[in-house]
């Protein structure tokens, strides 16, 4: 476990960017952009000597990178694109024609990048993380300069050799590492969860409460735009699976069954599928906490807004509860499918969604913890086995299932006395970490086992 207090911003957890994968698309794009900025700092003589830029992918990035659009994301980052401002249509157009190259200007030198720039390496590579990318500035066969990056889930990246920020030097008014410590801070200082999280966020970012609240509203708006786009768009998703979109059909079905008890679940399913199908199509989504799980929270918040009629303040409060759970999992285990399997992505999203619903309903922190614990507990051991490396099967339906489990976790946690819950959130996160460590790498975003092997039947 990390021994420093949690100092992650809510806006690092909920990030806007193109699908289909935060670890395979957003992370590599950010790494490529960072490498570009470092190239620009090199002596002009080094740049003039160089003949090419080469990129090498290892681990899960290599195994499923083509299906996840990692090659396009890398070219985009080297072109200077940033996730939040990327045009999804322009991103999807990159590398469509294998004869086209893209000029990357570094100083007075232009490097022309194309399909031959990206190398999907299948050999073992000594790396501390499953998703590794190495950028090299080359003079023929000779390397002039290189950087190695790790995409660790949710769009977070690390650069080899870079000293991590000294988290102990970052001061927040109410430090915590675990749910036990978080509850203690709430009790000692007589604070609501939202008050504590806001105080820490202002200390971390320097933003005012008004600025933070406006940004959360904007994040929710991005989520709900993805849902609305997904409810409108029909047809077939990109890729060799030729999977047809299902969200619009489900939405129409729900509207036709409005008097039926089933309509509520069908509406929720349609919202989650809508955002997740937009992610699979490479559209703009919000990591929640990852792009692969970007249908759960958007679907639940859309439901809360349009069916429960919660106002903006209530939705924001719920987002803080969701963030608290996401922080705890990221800090004490991982939200990466390549590290934890799908329990790290959908499992975390489901727990966050359960916490969101529980806090919006005005329940105490004990109920929020119980709901989140139930959400994770019933995703333990879930593999990440995407067919063909695409974030489509089983990923899209898993978002809907994760949201339904989140709603049920909310019901279970609020049906009795939360204090009677036998397993704590801290305990289940420890189990989650151990399960991810024990899980075979074949089941962690490599498409080498499980449902991925049924690709021939699609």
Automatic annotation (TrEMBL):
Pfam families: SDH_alpha, SDH_beta. Its cofactor is [4Fe-4S] cluster. Keywords: 4Fe-4S, Gluconeogenesis, Iron, Iron-sulfur, Lyase, Metal-binding. Residues 9-161 form the Serine dehydratase beta chain domain. One of its GO terms (molecular function) is 4 iron, 4 sulfur cluster binding. Its EC number is 4.3.1.17. Belongs to the iron-sulfur dependent L-serine dehydratase family. This is L-serine dehydratase. It comes from Larkinella rosea.
